[in-house]
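Dear H.,

Thanks for agreeing to be a second pair of eyes. The structure we're designing against is below in token form, covering all 165 positions.
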């Protein structure tokens, strides 16, 4: 059984309980009719879900190829990004920081009305000052490009913190 089937069945049972409760409060004579209607609705839903042959899950070949192409592009970008995680500060600033900054801004619902100072304050609060230094889009240090970057451990901590937001 699918997760969809379970959710629909639980929802139907809750609805049945609510209808029964309301009908008890309104008039006891309506209870039998309400029970019959709810039972018929549950049977129809269960039969409809159990006979679903997946007719809505068919993907056209053109859409499938577009999907595969999008996944391939995403995978290529991810692999290219991961190559720079353990690199220098310059590689981090050039390749990793813009992606992390964009993801952070999307996760907080960044609006253009927020200035750099407010964004920096939000970043320090959400990620902590030790991690925000590596995400802040305005903290690029051109003079320190050949120094070591923060590395994979810091990247993982940043991603974990963003996932919890």
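And this is the sequence the design step returned. I haven't edited it by hand at all.
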């Amino acid at each position: 059984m699918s997760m969809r089937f379970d959710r629909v069945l639980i929802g139907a049972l809750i609805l049945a309980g609510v209808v029964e409760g309301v009908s008890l409060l309104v008039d006891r004579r309506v209870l039998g009719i309400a029970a019959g209607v709810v039972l018929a609705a549950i049977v129809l839903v269960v039969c409809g879900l159990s006979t679903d042959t997946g007719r809505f899950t068919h993907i056209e070949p053109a859409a499938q190829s577009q999907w595969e192409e999008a996944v391939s592009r995403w995978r290529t970008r991810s692999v290219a990004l991961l190559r720079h995680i353990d690199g220098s500060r310059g590689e981090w600033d050039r390749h990793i920081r813009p992606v992390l900054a964009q993801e952070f801004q999307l996760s907080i619902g960044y609006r253009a009305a927020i200035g750099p100072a407010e964004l920096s304050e939000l970043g320090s609060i959400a990620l902590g000052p030790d991690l925000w230094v590596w995400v802040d889009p305005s903290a690029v240090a051109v003079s320190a490009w050949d120094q070591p970057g923060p590395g994979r451990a810091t990247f993982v901590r940043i991603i974990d913190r963003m996932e919890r937001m």
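Two observations from my side: The chain has two domains: 3-53, 73-163. The mean pLDDT is 79.

Warmly,
E.
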